[in-house]
Amino acid sequence: MVSVVIAAYNTEKYIAKCLESLKNQTYADFEAIVVVDGATDKTSAVCEEFSKQDSRFSIIYRKNGGLAAARNTGLEKCTAEYVAFVDSDDYVSPNYLELLVSAIKKNDCDISACGYILEDENGNEKYRTERGSGVMDNEMFLNNMLIPINRSYGAFVWNKLYKNEIIKKYNIRFPSEKRYLFEDHYFNYEYMKYAKRACYTSSCAYHYITRENVGIIRGITED
Predict the structure, then answer these.
(1) What is the pLDDT of residue 219?
(2) 3-state DSSP of the chain
């Protein structure tokens, strides 16, 4: 089973597509934990509708504290063997979870990653990862995350699958201090201290959407 953490703040225009893409996964054994981080728009109403229709979706409400704090709140509620993260204004392909779970089990790894596609708000593709599939040790995987080569999988958390056992055992969390701009890098670096084996599948199953006044904050570029 997979626990999927979705931090949501004022994404009423986009979150329905995000949650619908999870609802339609070919790998159905998951729980979607939506953390509404003090949203002031209709984000909560959209999430509540999904939770009424599908018991796999649950909602946690908290005061606005930012992305890292919201994800940490979600991690406290994760009960599954694996943990994944999806941003509330992105969406995933139907085989997203199946690819990640299959890869981590088949290769006996502690973390798996998939490729991603960068799209604009109109659905036009601007970029996609091109690295070939493979299995590697933690040092090589970490190097490829921090120093991307050949459009690699990056140091993001949203295209990766983690073992909840490792997260809980070593209390791995996103940084609470505001001085950390790239929370994903921090989390992955901490996790890779304890992950011995990793794998990557070249299939691009995550759709990262660039939006005005959002792309830079979310820490990704097209180069």
Answers:
(1) 42
(2) CEEEEEEECCCCCCHHHHHHHHHCCCCCCEEEEEEEECCCCCHHHHHHHHHHHCCCEEEEEECCCCHHHHHHHHHHHCCCCEEEECCCCCEECCCHHHHHHHHHHHCCCCEEEEEEEEECCCCCEEEECCCCCEEEEHHHHHHHHHCCCCCCCCCCCCCEEEEHHHHHHCCCCCCCCCCCCCHHHHHHHHHHCCCCEEEEEEEEEEEEECCCCCCCCCCCCCC
